[in-house]
Design brief:
Strand order of the largest sheet: 9-12-8-13-14-15-16
Number of domains: 3
Number of strands: 25
Oligomer: single chain
Strand content: 15-25%
CATH topology of the largest domain: Rossmann fold
CATH superfamily of the largest domain: Peptidase S8/S53 domain
Length: 545
């Protein structure tokens, strides 16, 4: 089921490039042997900004980043197969063919790992489709002269603090992967984005020849929550950010090929140097029931789109995904890629901090907490196709609340990695010490996240302790060649909210090997070292290796 909330709209679906082609497939390659690309020359396939993002976070460029071998693509084309997109992370491509017999034997070729049917075309040529959704309600103006009816959705996560201190997303690039961006080229909430060159570009992975501003309106609604601005009546969560608008959802249908389009879009976002990805798309059931996913597959490793979302996070981007709107339906659980690892999956709540009944439940199939955090997704203020500000429901409207605020937080804490920003958000949340499968770690507090993560670092050479490794797992080593080694030292671990988690006194010395208590959970910590009245503080990340 789609996680998007569909707006009453008449759309035109053009089957461009697919008139005589009935089936879509994912073709997986065995390797990248012989590729002309090299990790030593990443500028051949990554933008300067994408390379810089990795360098700033000490992330290596690996074979996974290399584009697929063009020789393999040429081989498929020589067989009469239409290659629509390639995916380097999954080392494969999206293809179309009307020759089912050929596709059945394609796996016999030495460079092909497997072939999977992902799309069955229902019709050819042009079709007019009408679809409906839960109705949007008229928005009620808030007393805030700046935010209007958007005030509550930002205030419930304490995001006003960031805005008041100049953090509104400037310098950050957000990619929105969605079903279409109807009206973004002329609706009032987006005028400032065009005037300030904040729309960096668009790309349609479903139908490259379409006008993305005449497709589905859902991506437009999402963009308004993040980047919208109407003087005196509406303000989004990150109105000064820049945006890539990427369409991957073929709204009239539901097939796994759309999840593969998403993978290609996420790769594009990475290559373009995007900082934050927002997606309100989720997949579990399809028009062809034989293609449905099962709950047991939601382990972050089995479903292709979820593996790709995990890889996207590993490149240094923050990936934010809607949990899904299946909480009061038979499916009940989150959908893919909300099960991915090292991302933020967002549930929905009311302005009174009550879980939305439709908001999907976790955990993942392997037992991880999902959703991660929750934001306002009931009566969320959005730009409507009519030009007015309305309200709507869905986790697809709570996710962009967090997306914009995460961009603002990262703007403020530019020294942190994407993983550290996520951890700061989690640890600031209301239910961090007692998470559940409905609201996850709870409601983030972005003021707390911003304040408690700024720890002044001492530059006193007389107390310049070297602490390693970072990230750490089971042990830490402390050394200080400037230490006299004649007095005991005191160490203390604090989480980012300032709560003391562990302390110990170490006997006199200048180098120490410390076993870490097993009860310390993964996350960010501040290590405080005291010696002879001097204090040094070190920001560390605990991870399981």
């Amino acid at each position: 089921m789609k996680s998007v909330i569909k707006i009453l709209l008449i759309v035109q679906f053009f089957a461009a490039d697919m008139v005589a082609i009935d089936y879509g497939y994912f073709v997986s390659f065995t390797d990248k042997t012989g590729t002309p690309y090299s990790v030593d020359t990443p500028e051949d396939f990554l933008s300067a900004r994408a390379i810089e993002r990795r360098e700033n976070q000490n992330i290596s460029i690996t074979e996974t980043d290399l584009p697929v071998n063009p020789i393999y693509i040429d081989s498929l084309k020589s067989l009469g197969i239409t290659v629509k997109h390639t995916t380097k992370w999954m080392n494969g491509c999206i293809v179309f063919s009307s020759d089912a017999a050929l596709m059945d034997t394609l796996a016999n070729y030495g460079f092909v790992s497997f072939v999977e049917l992902t799309y069955k075309q229902k019709a050819t040529g042009m079709a007019k489709l009408e679809y409906t959704s839960p109705k949007l309600k008229s928005g009620n103006s808030d007393k805030s002269e700046i935010y209007g009816s958007a005030f509550k959705q930002i205030n419930t996560v304490n995001g006003i603090y960031l805005h008041n201190n100049g953090m509104q997303g400037e310098g950050k690039i957000i990619a929105i992967i969605d079903a279409g961006f109807y009206g973004v080229d002329n609706l009032p909430a987006f005028t400032h984005l065009w005037n300030n060159n904040q729309i960096l570009g668009t790309k349609d992975f479903v139908n490259p020849s379409s006008n993305i501003f005449e497709e589905h309106a859902h991506g437009m609604n999402v963009l308004s929550i993040i980047g919208g601005k109407i003087e005196g009546s509406f303000l989004g969560t990150a109105p000064e950010a820049k945006f890539w608008l990427l369409r991957t959802e073929d709204a009239p249908t539901e097939y796994p090929i759309e999840a593969d389009y998403w993978i290609c879009a996420a790769e594009f976002a990475d290559s373009a140097g995007v900082d934050v990805i927002n997606t309100s798309l989720g997949y579990s059931t399809f028009d062809d029931e034989t293609m449905n996913y099962t709950y047991s597959q939601l382990d972050g490793e089995t479903i292709r789109i979820s593996r790709a979302a995990t890889i996207a996070a590993s490149t240094g981007m923050i990936v934010i995904v809607s949990a899904g709107n299946e909480g009061n339906k038979a499916w009940h659980y989150i959908s893919a890629p909300a099960d991915a690892k090292n991302i933020l999956t967002i549930g929905a709540m009311t302005s009174d901090s009550i879980k939305g009944p439709f908001s999907s439940f976790g955990p993942t199939a392997d037992g991880r907490i999902k959703p991660d955090v929750t934001a306002m997704g009931v009566c969320t203020a959005v730009q409507d196709v009519s030009g007015s500000i309305e309200t709507g429901n869905g986790t697809s409207f709570s996710a962009p609340v967090i997306t914009g605020m995460a961009a603002c937080l990262w703007q403020s804490l530019s020294q942190l990695s994407s993983a550290q920003v996520i951890d700061v958000i989690l640890q600031s949340s209301s239910n961090y010490d007692n998470p559940d499968t409905g609201m996850g770690y709870g409601i983030p507090d972005f003021e707390t996240a911003q304040k408690t993560s700024i720890i002044p670092q001492r530059e006193d050479n007389k107390n310049s302790w070297l602490v390693y490794p970072n990230p750490f797992s089971n042990h830490l080593v402390f050394s200080n060649i400037e230490s006299s080694g004649e007095t005991d030292i005191e160490i203390a671990f604090y989480d980012i909210t300032g709560s003391l988690k562990y302390s110990e006194t170490l006997k006199a010395g200048s180098e120490f090997y410390v076993d870490i208590p097993t009860y310390l959970s993964n996350g960010m910590y501040i290590l405080q070292i005291k010696e002879n009245g001097l204090v040094s503080q070190h920001k560390l990340m605990k991870e399981d290796f």
